[in-house]
């Protein structure tokens, strides 16, 4: 019984010894290189166990293995014994476990880690971090897109760990973060040595629509297109080229964002300082059209000095057209200086002022009564517009279309494009208006008819119609109407029916209205005038003579 008990104790102690001394599978153990043969290293890991590892597992990416017999190395024990009685070990897995421990600490402390890019995969590259493989996204390689990553392959360099998951075996690193940090330090140093107003040399690195980026030796500054020259610059490529060295002035430095604004024109004299002296008001200059807008055209008087010709100052006659139909870009034009505002850096120019006012010219060459001929340009409800010399229009009002009838009735006889003749009746230069008369071409039948007839004249008319309110009469083709109250000074004789159509009647002209083209006539006024004249010649009733005696004497005198 005692012998059995001691044997059991010995077996338990032996098993315990094996369990304590034999390393567990899945752990990292130290081994000794006892031989190198057939591209493999034979490692003695103790406990009478040996294993084989390919030599390539001892080499860093892009390097040859540095291993000799007798070296002590750490290996990962995957299996204590395989079918051939050998231990299954791995140097790569040992390095990985070691690396993960080291990388987790670095990630927690936000420290950089060294590694080497050794492969290309979809979306980026693979990086060896001393045993652990990490993913380097393409966007994290450099601060700018990298077209050729060849020079970076196999090069040992620092990386920043962005994310890692040991359970899934994922590590994401960034080279860009290291470069940006270094770049930020460099920028801070360069910016610290710069001051606003300082002149520096730089190299043009990039050109955009709005300006150019200039390298000042580790830090970029923006040279905006408006600060390149005093003149208008449509695109920076007009005066700059990538790689060109330029002298610039530091305009502004933002210490917080590290943004630097640069200028080139600030190193030149400001042409606006001498604008008022070189371009006095009402002086005429030749300039070049640089830009055309809906409201006018910009004209360059000299490099850096532009003025605006407003659309209202472009033409005497073209009022509602786009400026592009009057001038074109790069065209040389003569302009007059109308106004200068040096504070706002504005010059108002006039194009039409360099040419004579066509209405003034027309007024000088076409006095009232001049006969003109032109094309009907437009027909409106109040008259015709006729094209005249100097690209201007004259208007024929409805009342100037015809002597007879209404203008509304005859305007329909005209068509756009018809050639018509008319006489100038009025020219208003200030209001830019020319009044024409077509009816004046035929003379004035009213004026011709009345001849020398004036107010107070006695004329003979012919009765053409009898009405209740009076009689219609005619004189030289002109019709007039005598009211009942004007048929006689005697109320009993103010009867229209006592006249007959065709009767000849002497009447007195009481009014000549050229505007309405009517004569005011009265038999009553003639009789009163005759009575007054007879009284003056043959006496008055106050001297004892009766009115009948006076009139009788007057009639007898006229018979004699």
SSE topology:
Blueprint: H1 2-21, E1 27-37, E2 40-46, E3 49-54, E4 72-79, E5 88-90, H2 91-108, E6 113-121, E7 124-128, E8 133-137, E9 156-165, E10 170-174, H3 176-192, E11 199-207, E12 211-215, E13 220-224, E14 245-254, E15 259-263, H4 275-278, E16 284-293, E17 296-302, E18 305-310, E19 332-341, E20 346-350, H5 358-365, E21 371-380, E22 383-388, E23 392-397, H6 407-410, E24 419-428, E25 433-437, H7 445-450, E26 458-467, E27 470-475, E28 478-483, E29 504-513, E30 518-522, H8 523-538, H9 547-559
Parallel strand pairs: 13-15, 18-20, 23-25
Antiparallel strand pairs: 1-2, 1-4, 2-3, 4-5, 6-7, 6-9, 7-8, 9-10, 11-12, 11-14, 12-13, 14-15, 16-17, 16-19, 17-18, 19-20, 21-22, 21-24, 22-23, 24-25, 26-27, 26-29, 27-28, 29-30
Q: Proportion of β residues? A: 35-45%
- CATH homologous superfamily title of the largest domain: Nucleic acid-binding proteins
CATH class of the largest domain: Mainly Beta
Mean pLDDT, to the nearest integer, reads 81
Instruction: Trace the largest sheet across and list its strands.
Output: 3-2-1-4-5
What number of domains? 6
Query: Number of helical segments?
Result: 9
Helix content: 10-25%
| Low-pLDDT sequence parts | none
Tell me the CATH topology of the largest domain: OB fold (Dihydrolipoamide Acetyltransferase, E2P)
Output the radius of gyration: 58 Å
Q: Mind describing the biggest β-sheet?
A: 5 strands, antiparallel
Secondary-structure-derived class: alpha+beta
Task: Give the overall form.
Answer: rod-shaped
Q: Return the CATH architecture of the largest domain.
A: Beta Barrel
Measured distance between first and last alpha carbons: 206 Å
Give the strand tally.
30
């Amino acid at each position: 019984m005692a012998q059995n008990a001691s044997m059991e104790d010995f077996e338990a102690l032996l098993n315990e010894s094996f369990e304590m001394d034999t390393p567990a599978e899945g752990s990292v153990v130290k081994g000794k290189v006892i031989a190198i043969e057939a591209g493999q290293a034979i490692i003695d890991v103790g406990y009478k166990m040996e294993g084989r590892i390919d030599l390539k597992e001892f080499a860093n990416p892009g390097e040859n293995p540095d291993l000799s017999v007798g070296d002590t190395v750490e290996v990962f024990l995957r299996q204590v014994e395989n079918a051939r009685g050998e231990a299954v070990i791995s140097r790569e897995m040992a390095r990985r476990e070691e690396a993960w421990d080291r990388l987790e600490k670095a990630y927690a402390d936000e420290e950089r880690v060294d590694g080497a890019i050794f492969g290309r995969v979809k979306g980026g590259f693979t990086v060896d971090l001393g045993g652990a493989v990490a993913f380097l996204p393409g966007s994290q390689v450099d601060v700018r897109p990298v077209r050729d990553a060849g020079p970076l392959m196999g090069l040992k360099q620092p990386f920043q760990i962005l994310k890692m998951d040991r359970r899934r075996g994922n590590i994401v690193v960034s080279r860009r973060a290291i470069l940006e940090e270094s770049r930020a330090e460099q920028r801070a140093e360069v910016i610290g040595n710069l001051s606003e107003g300082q002149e520096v040399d730089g190299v043009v690195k990039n050109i955009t629509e709005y300006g150019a980026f200039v390298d000042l030796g580790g830090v970029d500054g923006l040279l905006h297109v408006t600060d390149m020259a005093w003149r208008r610059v449509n695109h920076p490529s007009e005066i700059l080229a990538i790689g060109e060295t330029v002298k610039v002035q530091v305009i502004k430095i933002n210490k917080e964002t590290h943004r630097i604004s640069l200028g080139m024109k600030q190193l030149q004299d400001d042409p606006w300082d001498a604008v008022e002296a070189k371009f006095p008001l009402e002086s005429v200059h030749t300039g070049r059209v640089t830009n055309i807008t809906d409201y006018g055209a910009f004209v360059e008087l000299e490099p850096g000095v532009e003025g605006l010709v407003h659309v209202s100052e472009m033409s005497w006659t073209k009022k509602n057209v786009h400026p592009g139909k009057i001038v074109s870009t790069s065209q040389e034009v003569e302009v007059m200086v109308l106004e200068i505002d040096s504070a706002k850096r504005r010059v108002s120019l006039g194009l039409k002022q360099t040419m004579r006012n066509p209405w003034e010219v027309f007024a000088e060459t076409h006095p009232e009564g001049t006969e003109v001929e032109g094309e009907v340009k437009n027909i409106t409800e109040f008259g015709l517009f006729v094209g005249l010399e100097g690209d201007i229009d004259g208007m024929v009002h409805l009342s100037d279309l015809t002597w007879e009838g209404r203008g509304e009735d005859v305007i329909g006889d005209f068509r756009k494009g018809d050639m018509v003749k008319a006489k100038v009746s009025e020219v208003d230069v200030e209001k830019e208006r020319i009044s024409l008369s077509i009816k004046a071409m035929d003379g004035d039948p009213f004026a011709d008819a009345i001849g020398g007839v004036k107010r107070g004249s006695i004329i003979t008319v012919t009765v053409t119609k009898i009405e209740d309110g009076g009689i219609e009469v005619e004189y030289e083709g002109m019709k007039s109407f005598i009211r009942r109250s004007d048929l006689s000074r005697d109320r009993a004789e103010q009867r229209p029916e006592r006249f007959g159509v065709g009767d000849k009647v002497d009447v007195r002209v009481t009014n000549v209205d050229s505007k309405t083209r009517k004569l005011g006539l009265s038999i009553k006024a003639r009789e009163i005038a005759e009575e007054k004249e007879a009284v003056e010649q043959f006496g008055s009733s106050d001297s004892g003579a009766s009115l009948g005696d006076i009139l009788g004497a007057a009639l007898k005198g006229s018979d004699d």
